[in-house]
Amino acid sequence: MEKSNTSDNTSDDDKVENEEEKIVEDVAKQCFPPLPDVTYSYCNPTPKLSNSCGGSDTASDETIRSIPSLSSRREKVPLLARMSDSSITHCSFPGDTVYNDMFQQAEEAIEAGVYPKRIAQGSSGSYFVRNVKGEIIGVFKPKNEEPYGHMNPKWLKWMQRVCCPCCFGRSCLPLNQGYLSEAAASLVDEKLQLHVVPKTKVVRLAAPTFNYSRIDHAKAQTKQRIMEKYPNIGRHFHRLGLPRKIGSLQTFVSGYKDANCWLAQFEQEPLSEAAKVQFQRQFERLVILDYIIRNTDRGSDNWLIKYVPEDQVNGEQVVDVECDDKESSALIKIAAIDNGLAFPLKHPDEWRAYPFHWAWLKQAREPFSDETRRLILPRIDDLDFVMELCDDLKKLFETDQGFDPQIFEKQMSVLRGQILNLCQALKESKSPLQLVQMPPMIIEKTKEHMSLPQEHSDVVVIDDAYLRENGYAVAVLEKALMEKCSYIVIEPTVLANQAKCSISIGNFLHRTAVLLGSATVIIVCYFPNLPIVWGTTCGTSVVSCALYWCGWSRDPCSHYQVETDKQKLEEMWKKNSLSFLINPVVLRYQNDRPRRTFQMLIVVASTTFVVLKCFKLL
């Protein structure tokens, strides 16, 4: 009886499940019309439609299936999806056939089951990308597996993030922009025709060997099961399989070794004169690249050298396709890799200076060659070229979902300052060592402030003022203070906070001198037998007065006070048509002479009163 009951229960459950499947299929047919026959692949989102001339392109059993791209459902894509990472669903580079072929080979290899292999070295998750034959053709660095990314598979960085979060990251670098830095370094290399950076671009790839979270694996398995059980519903998924990871894909250069290996060998076996000249020219190009992008991670282990002795050349050209160099007899080539920690938003100003390690080489003591000066100087000395370079970099950085225009402008201000220093060094025929010893500069792109009416021309507005990073704003503030403008409006930045703090210190010294001077007179009158008390108050009053007159009165801010009256501020905003996202700091001009005179009278009177009292006691 028990067996018959269990069998009846299982049969009833099967009936319920079959009825549920029929209901789901009926609903799916009504809500989702059937799609044409499609062959799905793992990486390529472009569907292959069935052949209308007879036969069809069917997928094999080993093919991992995915869903067609969003192009077939374009009406559901939002118009503002350009700034999202998910908008880059398929990568193609029609303007660069060599790189596009390499990328297509990588996708085909992943479809065939030849997955990227993780690189054991380094502090981030980086992978050797291979073609169908298993040959390494590129290096892929996903965004979320960067040294400070949340999916970094290296346990040392995980330990650092968990155990020592205060020392995690570099304050001068924006977070999670390493892949953009890699591609931007390649862009700068291409614009300056340095040919030392292997071609690098931003792509999207997906492979099971990448480091994914459990949620991503669970979602991929769930979609696969739905696709197998309910194909009419599953075929409407955006794609099957693991999600694509955005990152930088750099062309792999073969025949290169770490610079440490060759530099040690060059010390034991000196190069020939022709090889020395060639190496010096390549080294100067590396210096120019690193200095412009302000690479904070250029050691001897992350730039490569390819050296072919003269007796092994045999009249053949040793030219790298990746570098696209036009030299006909190159014996030595340099490849600048690992450019992910460049383009800082400020110069390093903490306990770690991130120096250029090539500055200690003997090649850094040689002045820049005439060939390098003729190649680089006409470009970087042209303002239009620098502006075009910044615009191209902006187009690249805008593809990131977390793009911040203010942070990018800071990065470009550092880059422009580096270019200005480099331009001066090339004109003066300095060496790379002398170049890195030049004081760092920042050129800020200033805004054009609105022109105020003539009757309100005494109001000065300073936008985006940074004390250490915007010398122009500091100069504008100093000029406005010296000219004693009625109102100075400063956005709440470091410069505004310093001016506000300086005024607060002046007010504190003034109030201390006046209050303690007045208190001294009262204490002497009512407590004449406490000379220690009124002597201390009198001395403090005199010291505060001396500091005020000798130090604070020489500060241009001594003639200003911070305006806190909200009604006056609102009237000023309406009258001058001003608007701010955050309440700015407003300095109001106030003649300091009456206050200083009153302070001096109080201090002199209290001091005289104390001196006379002391004579009486003696």
From TrEMBL:
What is its EC class? Answer: transferase
Gene name linked to the record: pi4k2b
PROSITE patterns in UniProt: PI3_4_KINASE_3
Q: Where is the PI3K/PI4K catalytic domain?
A: 113-445
Topology in the lipid bilayer is annotated as: Peripheral membrane protein
- What keywords is this UniProt entry annotated with? ATP-binding, Cell membrane, Kinase, Membrane, Nucleotide-binding, Transferase
Task: Output one GO MF annotation.
Answer: 1-phosphatidylinositol 4-kinase activity
Question: Is Kinase one of the keywords?
Answer: yes
| Reaction(s) catalysed by this chain's protein | a 1,2-diacyl-sn-glycero-3-phospho-(1D-myo-inositol) + ATP = a 1,2-diacyl-sn-glycero-3-phospho-(1D-myo-inositol 4-phosphate) + ADP + H(+)
Q: What is this protein called?
A: Phosphatidylinositol 4-kinase type 2
Compartment(s): Cell membrane; Membrane
Q: What is its EC number?
A: 2.7.1.67
Which Pfam families does the UniProt record give?
Mito_morph_reg, PI3_PI4_kinase
